[in-house]
Backbone:
């Protein structure tokens, strides 16, 4: 039974990854459902073989009375804002002065309009997930985050790592949810961000599990395997070890290319299946990031260009 459970668990983990992270399923839904039922039956017959990172443990746990607090070992900071081209040029000038170079490689990422969360993995298993909170102390929402299908319960990296990203509700899920709430005489959510926040704040994971939340990861903490030299390499590494990253990120040589990228997304924004509230611009070189450091509350090597609300 142990071998069968391990084989089923591995197959289901791979199917889930292909469907929810790569958006490239290789088996039909009924195959997934049938194997999941097989695994559930085997685990019911051998409960001592159930592991917390089994595919059957996504919607686990009884409703909580409250969320416990989590201290972020590395604070979850906020981003300085830019509202126009002038602000972006000012940011670029400060960066070039700070690193003493006249051309900078940036990475641009879509700024997802959701909730920032931090995910901790130990020995390859998802062990804890927390909200940003006030940046230092967040809330432990591990059980709710386990219901987000695009969050892997196990990854290939076995050293302890922490990754950060944005949980969001796709627009289609938001519209369906509000329709259902309307039918049930419940108040509609104002926007997908509020709906995602409300879903992650549910004390009962069975409710969160029905909200079709999704996630894009964008940062990975320092860890021994971290011999990477740039943010773009880290994004690629996140993808390699099984995380979902937003595919629209782009390396930009100099602030003019950043300005072009930002302008292109002002147009294309409405074609996305999820809400974004801006573009995040980061210095790519980790050495340069190190040299620029942080203000009290945000990195000097990044800024968020905000779209008009
Ligand atoms: C480096 O710090 C950050 N990076 C970020 N990157 C993306 N893509 N989106 C964010 N919301 C974000 N927020 C922060 C504080």
Residues:
């Amino acid at each position: 039974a142990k071998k069968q459970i391990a084989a089923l668990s591995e197959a289901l983990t791979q199917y889930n990854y292909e469907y929810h992270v790569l958006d490239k399923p290789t088996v039909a839904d009924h195959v997934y459902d049938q194997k999941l039922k097989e695994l559930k039956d085997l685990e019911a017959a051998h409960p001592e073989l159930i592991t917390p990172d089994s595919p059957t443990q996504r919607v686990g746990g009884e409703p909580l009375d409250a969320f416990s607090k989590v201290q972020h070992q590395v604070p979850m900071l906020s981003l300085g804002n830019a509202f126009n081209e002038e602000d972006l040029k000012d940011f670029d000038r400060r960066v070039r002065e700070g690193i003493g170079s006249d051309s900078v490689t940036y990475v641009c990422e879509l700024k997802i309009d959701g909730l920032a969360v931090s995910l901790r993995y130990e020995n390859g298993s998802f062990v804890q997930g927390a909200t940003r909170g006030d940046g230092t102390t967040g809330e432990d929402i591990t059980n709710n985050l386990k219901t987000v299908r695009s969050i892997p319960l196990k990854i290939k990296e076995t050293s302890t790592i922490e990754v950060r990203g944005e949980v969001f509700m796709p627009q289609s899920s938001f519209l369906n949810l509000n329709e259902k709430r309307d039918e049930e005489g419940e108040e509609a959510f104002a926007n997908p961000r509020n709906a995602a926040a409300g879903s992650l704040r549910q004390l009962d994971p069975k409710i969160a599990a029905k909200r079709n939340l999704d996630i894009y990861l964008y940062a990975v903490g320092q860890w021994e395997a971290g011999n990477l030299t740039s943010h773009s390499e880290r994004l690629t590494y996140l993808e390699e070890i099984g995380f979902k990253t937003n595919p629209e990120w782009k390396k930009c040589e100099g602030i003019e290319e950043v300005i072009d990228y930002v302008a292109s997304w002002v147009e294309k924004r409405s074609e996305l299946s999820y809400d974004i509230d801006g573009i995040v611009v980061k210095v790519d070189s980790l050495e340069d990031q190190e040299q620029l450091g942080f203000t009290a509350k945000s990195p000097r090597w990044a800024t968020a260009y905000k779209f008009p609300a």
Notes: The chain has ten helices and eleven strands.
